[in-house]
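Recall the central idea of this unit: under ordinary conditions, the amino acid sequence of a chain determines the structure it adopts. In this exercise we apply that idea directly, starting from the sequence alone.
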Amino acid sequence: MNLQSMKTRFVGSYVVLLVLFIIQIPIIYMLVESMSKKYAHVNAAGGLRKRAVEITEVLTRHVMTGDESLEAVFQTKREEYGHAIEGLRKGSQDVSAVKGAEINEKLDAVEKAWLSMRESLDNAMAAGDNLRTYKKRVEDTTQPMVDKMTTLLNAYNDLHDVGYAKTIEFAAQRRALTVRLSYLFERYYLWDYDGTVKRDMDSSIEAFDSGLDALKNGSSLLGVRPPKGEKVNAALREVDFGWKERKELMLAAVKAKDTFSVNIATVIKTHTPAVMAAADTLMKTIAVNAKSDAMKSVMVVVISIIVSAAIALIFMWSTNKLVIKPIIKIKETVEDFASGDLTKRAEVKISFMGKELNDEISSLGDSVDAMATQMSGLIGRIADSANQLASASEQLSASSTQISEGANKQSNQTTQVATAMEE
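Accordingly, the structure predicted from this sequence is:
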């Protein structure tokens, strides 16, 4: 590179500025890409919180509504949760792997909380499946039990004994009670917030037990007469057998419901908040790291811009000092020449980094000074020639005068000779 050339310096300065500008492009690109990755990490960590709630909700809906399609949804979301954690750890198509010991430590905490929650979810699912099985069996015994009670009522009616009117009314109430037990169990199955339904069920079961005993043995206190006839006794045996089966199933269903309630409560009150808290901590840690990385990248960009601005200022300063000022000085010198003052000289001296340069501007200044010197010499020589010409002109004028005087004398002499000859 020839630093003596102004063109080289200009091109070099522009190249440096261009390189700095080009360097900023990948820096900004990496900054944007890094922020996009961090945002994806934050979004994925936030998704872990949301997924934990969704899985619990799907499980509860599956058990409460009996919708079999929700079990597949539950299993899918359960697997997706594990894949989401693994995706953050090792990277996936949607998100890159997280980096940093602190973030991975928080991710380990999320995974640990999830494994505990998954085990509790599986227990709740098993308890829910068991509960739904008992619920179906209880439902299946409702109509047969009503039919058995109806058969018993018909057997009493077939006695055509008005003395059994009170007993028939009491038996009809027991039939209504078995229907009410189905209604109470359905309510208890869906949710018993304060235990009221459970107490109603217990009292209804006790009432049916005592009522069935009264029907089998009679009760003067209740106005129920002992059974009469083989048809009534056979119907009572069927009712007794059906009630024992139904009661056993209802008690087992209640126990299954209690087990499910304990498991789902553990999921909702213990494991889900633990997973959400761990995921929230992970999300905040990723966000803090993202902010730190962003600030570092911004500082790099700011430094790059400052360096570019500094170089641009140096370029402007050097252009002013090494180009503009010398050209202005040359212009002023030429204007002095135009006004007739050839004594002025540009005397352009350009130095860069302590070294005197002989570039195009300094060469132009030297040429202007040399032109002024030559013009001054030429004008001096012209003035000397003019002086010599003026002196020669004076001499010629004197010689002409002498010749004229001589001619006059000669003319006079000629005239005199002519006069003398005439005489």
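The first strand starts at residue 350 and ends at 352.
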